[in-house]
Amino acid sequence: MTHIDEPLPTHQHSYPDLPELPTLILHRRRESLFLLFSGIFLGTLAMLNILGITRFIKLFEMDFDASTPGVTVFAVAVGVLPYPITFLCTDFISELYGRRRANLVVLIGFILNVWVIFILWIGGALPGFETLDASGQIIQDAAGRDPVFFEVRTLAFGAVTASMAAYLVAQLVDVQVFHFWKRLTRGKHLWIRNNGSTIASQLVDTVAVILITYSFGALPINDDASIPLQLVVYIATGYVFKLTMALIDTVPFVIGTRYLVRYLRLPPPGTDSE
Known about the structure:
The chain is mainly α and 274 residues long. It contains 7 helices and 2 strands. It has one domain. It has helices at residues 23-51, 84-97, 99-125, 148-184, 190-215, 227-248, 250-263; strands at residues 56-62, 72-77. It has a two-stranded antiparallel ribbon. The chain starts with 22 loop residues before the first helix and ends in an 11-residue tail after the last helix.
């Protein structure tokens, strides 16, 4: 498929039923849509890194061994909820704009993570209006908690540190696998490359995030139960949630791509390949 970072083609001949558009209009459409997908991607990324692991949503509990006290809790971090939309955005960008732009957005997302960390750090380093003890430490409340900003800051540090490493690898895997399936299927079968890339990348992401978060001590773990089992449950729960969302987003991806290639006057899927 011909992409936007190449000389601007019109491909009007591919859509004889559509009116011919001036090059300027096509350019505005393509750049505006790219900005929209990039904005949703980067905005969602910033939001989920702040929300991160500030709260875990309990899905259900299960007692695997009645002879052993305690139950296994299946839960996902609130930051996981908007995460699947980031993979849908990179799939759209990969399909419509090519690998180069998809990788660029992934790299900018990584830089955004660093920016979030910097603002959180400097926001806590500068003097505020908190009550300090004789040693200059912030006095905690009756429940032994820091002020809200510092509670969020601590949790966000753990979440962002974990996600930065996992994110960069997972998103790059998503782009590479997407184009692997695209070459293999010669540009056909949108659902295969959409699901194939997301399934692989989100497995990488989920395993990395859970293990790194645990290593920072930011994962709620019951010390009286099997830690490996709890880690496996966290990984499985997060991955099944992401996988389910990936399968669901196949419909908007396929329908959206078929509409957008006409709207942007790009070659129909399967008529050209990278």
